[in-house]
Prior knowledge:
The complex is a heterodimer. By secondary structure, chain A is α/β, with parallel strands linked by helices. Chain A has 3 domains: 7-88 and 238-309, no CATH class; 96-234, Rossmann fold, CATH 3.40.50.11540; 323-365, no CATH class. In chain A, 25% of the residues lie in helices and 23% in strands. Chain A contains 11 helices and 16 strands. Chain A has a 6-stranded mixed beta sheet with strand order 1-13-12-16-14-15, covered by helices on one side. In chain A, a hairpin with a 6-residue loop joins β14 (278-282) and β15. The longest helix of chain A has 23 residues, at 137-159. Chain A starts with 5 loop residues before the first helix and ends with a helix. The model of chain A has no long low-confidence stretch (mean pLDDT 84). The model of chain B has no long low-confidence stretch (mean pLDDT 90). Chain B is mainly α. The radius of gyration of chain B is 19 Å and the shape is globular. In chain B, α1 packs antiparallel against α8 and α2 (46-70) packs parallel to α4 (98-114). Chain B has a single domain, classed as Orthogonal Bundle (Ammonium transporter fold). The interface between A and B is medium-sized, with 27 and 27 residues.
Amino acid sequence: MKTINIHNDLKNEIVTNFIEVYDTDYIYIPISDEKYIKKTGNVLKGELVYDDHNNKYYSSISGNILKIINVKSNKYLVIKNNYKEESINSGRARNLDKLTKDKLISNCLDLNIKNMFLSDIKLLYINCIDDDPYVFNKYMYIKNNMKELDEFCECIANLFNIEKVLFVIKNSNNDLLDMYKLNELENSKVNFKLLPDIYPIGNKLLLHDYLIKNNDEKMIELDDLINMVFSIKKNKINTEKYITINGNNIKNPCVINTKKYAFLNNIIKDLKIIDKKYDIFLNSFISGKKLNNNEVIITDDIDAIIINKKCSDDELECINCGLCVEVCPVKINPLVKNDKCIKCGLCNYICPSKIKIYERNQLNEK
Amino acid sequence: MKNKYSNLNIIIRYYLVIIILTIYATYKNGILLYNKKLINFVYIFKPLLLILLSLSISYLITFLYKKYIKKEKYSIKSDYNPIFIALIVFCLPININIFYYLIFIVIFNIVKLFLNIKINYYAMMKLIIILAIILLNKYNYQNIYELSIETNLSTFDMFFGKAIGGIATSNILLLIICYIILCTLINYKKEIPLISFVSYFLTLIVFCLIFNQNIIINIKDMICSEFIYAIILIATISFYSPILRNQRIIYSILIGILSFTFNKIFNIYEGVFIAILITSIIFSIINYVKEKKEKK
């Protein structure tokens, strides 16, 4: 397989700016059916407002539920912020020293994580690799909260007799090693594991195949660990979200921490755009969706906004070069629809004729 | 997003190769002959003229077809046809009549627009032109100087392009430079020339051992032939070579074996093109059957 150093190609640098944006006047909770709305009138921060059994949405602010609006084919419940930050949770953090196995398992919100802790674990990997060269959410979260995560991981390692808990990061993020010298403590069970900076190594499935060799080795996502920290240690719902705003058409790329369900347009209005002609990509410039406008609500699915200089969309004729086959990390022929496709978008990126192979296959699926 | 894997990048490398070969062709079939007072000054530029004519006619025909018949936007960045036609010019005899040549180029360009086949069109084009030259009784690869003298070349001379051959196919050193230039392209199927060469060489040795033939003479034949030119520039044309790596290996091995066989059966200038044509036919049949099976 041909490996491509996308960081070198794009010449993008690690984003170091971190901004907290909490002053959102309204939040917009996506709903599919009005009958599942759990609350009317006043609402507290962290209060359940919508539950249709598939999705549970908690308010990220305290305020008043105003109305339901329709944007294109989607419905949103509008909540007006009263800026009082009144929370439904007591906010009293749990003492990790008193935590037991059963308590931890019963407080896990995710069923897969619950089942994982019921089995034997010798080595636990935490996937902290952002799955796009332009995204730095996980990197920034670790940078800001490593001590808290380290403390929590030490606790679960002791509770479940886990020999090692390894935070899997990319080589290019090795400044985290200097920042948190975890291995200075000889008996520490928590450490970092560095992996080569090759896209799409952060992909859940690929990384699992790459790392996991035995049954007693497990891997969880950083987001799962964060949710555990919130539900078990902090005893509250996570109502905030890290979003990377990056791209080659932005003067000041940054990672922002903002309220979930805020309107993205309000957050990015102050960005310094270099060229007036640009494309906006959602989550990933390689495999992400190109947006026609920036009217986006920040939900759990949104990780990044990539603003790149506009380039020609003209697809040329396929020259049968076979590059898409050579770079495919799951070794399939991207020109033929295949269920094994992990939708990394490398075939799109490498194609000299700029054929949107990945998008074409997605259309075929529909 | 500008990236280094663009079509334009590929076209630029191929043009670099064309420029190098044109300079060599002008030197071998022009300047050298002019210095020996065998041709007049204008005749020096015949190789350059042939290349410029093939490029301009090919671009013009495709442009007119796209604009007036298909009514589509024409992009020079995706038009590889003129480049490959120019590459075929380099392996034709220098004695070719320019008028006949122009007719061939126009016909082949027009046919190419309407014929959507997956067999190596350019190898086929070269063979048809050669067949026509034979029918016109003008088949001769020697230039005026080579016709006038008896030569006894060393392997070293042959390596530096003193052997008889197409307009610019005989200089092995330049072909290696062209190969290195093309290897810098990420999409160039670089294993095809290497495997074909090894396969040809092994076939040659087996043949010499079985039939008790002189290995050196056969190696000289290989150097003089158009085999090296064709495996570097014609067999690797991405439209007609396999995508999958395993298929590419078999494709290259077949080209090596068949080239040696046809070089022995026919002659050292056309054998490799027959081999490329037959191999591409075999692979297009395999892929057609495979596609049909997948559809079922």
